[in-house]
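Posting for a labmate who doesn't have an account.
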Amino acid sequence: MTIALWIIQILLGLIFTITGSFKFFQSKQKVIASGGTWAEDFAPGLIKLIAGVELICGLLLIISRLLSLWRYINFIASGCIAVIMIGSIAVHIRRKEFTHAIINSLFLLMALFVSYLG
């Protein structure tokens, strides 16, 4: 179980570090053009805030696992990712983007797994 936790936590951290940094350092128009049509419904500042939280939480998941830091960091970072994913699922369902909602549901399950066992 420990190996599965390591793999899922590092994978989740990498995914959110990469996607968070992409959204954080790109303009709203580039996020939309790259397939993030959900961004049409949000102000640029809110997109940056969401992306910043994703980026920080992703980095915290990686750093805390690699350096064997406090267990609470894993709980907080994966909990924040879970909250973001719940909101993301709701947005995608409202926009009738069910494929994205399913993918984000998988990320939600991964975050809950890390939060519970991390």
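Reply:
Got it, the structure tokens are right above this. The helical segments are 2-25, 28-33, 44-66, 71-94, 98-117.
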